[in-house]
Amino acid sequence: MSQPVTATMASGVQAAERGLALAVEAVDLRFGGIHALRGVSFSAAPGQITAVIGPNGAGKTSVFNTISGFYRPAAGRIKLGGRDITDVPVHARAALGLARTFQNIALFRGLTVLENIKLGGHHAMHAGVLAALAYTRSARSEETALREEVERKVINFLEIDHIRNQSVDALPYGLQKRVELARALAMRPRVLLLDEPVAGMNREETEDMARYILDVQEEWGVTVLLVEHDMGMVMDISAHVAVLNFGEVIASGTPAEVRRHPQVIEAYLGAESAVAA
Known about the structure:
The protein is α/β, with parallel strands linked by helices. It has 13 helices and ten strands. The protein has helices at residues 5-8, 12-16, 60-67, 90-95, 113-119, 129-134, 137-155, 173-185, 203-220, 231-237, 255-260, 262-269, 271-276, and strands at residues 22-31, 34-44, 49-53, 75-80, 83-84, 98-100, 191-195, 223-227, 240-245, 248-253. The strands form two sheets. Strands 6-7-8-3-9-10 form a six-stranded mixed β-sheet, with helices on both faces. Strands 2-1-4-5 form a four-stranded antiparallel β-sheet, with helices on one face. α9 (203-220) links the parallel β7 and β8 (223-227).
């Protein structure tokens, strides 16, 4: 029987050393005449949970897509562990330890839970295309090792052993979101980007996901950057919060500091309500 993940991971101090700092520096992003991001700067401390919040249309997903390499900024830099990755391709960022989930579930329909999760680890395999197609001894060995690691560290950790052979199509929404998190963890991330991880979930599912995110940060030492609309969860689990509005950072600090910031209150409630507050 597989060991629980907590028995196989390093101590909390050693784990925290595995996370990388992530920095967004003066990033500008334009789509034609639309100025989506204006000099956006903030950072995510290694081994900590940082949240990016803001009203709809504030630029949160644009920031995520810029960090993960889907968008190239007109100006500014993205740094991972002190290294400038602004011009690094998407797949190479994954090799450097950057993984993400998506706002809209992006699982491979028709595949099982285990097959979807294993896809997250394939970027680190060394067997070439021909070896994989021929399923040579080295390819089989890597595939077996990947499966064992996924089962030991990821499936048990997220408590989804009972569904690992089911097709993802048949799963309820909350479990699909958990499988997507599992696939990202199979990439062995040092920085994990979570795009609205609890969107559409009920309260019980949200509490479960919040617990898993905290465990990823505490036990695995992963740096977590999340975009989320559930302010209760954000304020409960985040060490630092950056607030966007109309493509600009209007506040940055601890959850308590951000909660009291007048510009944040105005952005969420409107000027009249902010005055009343």
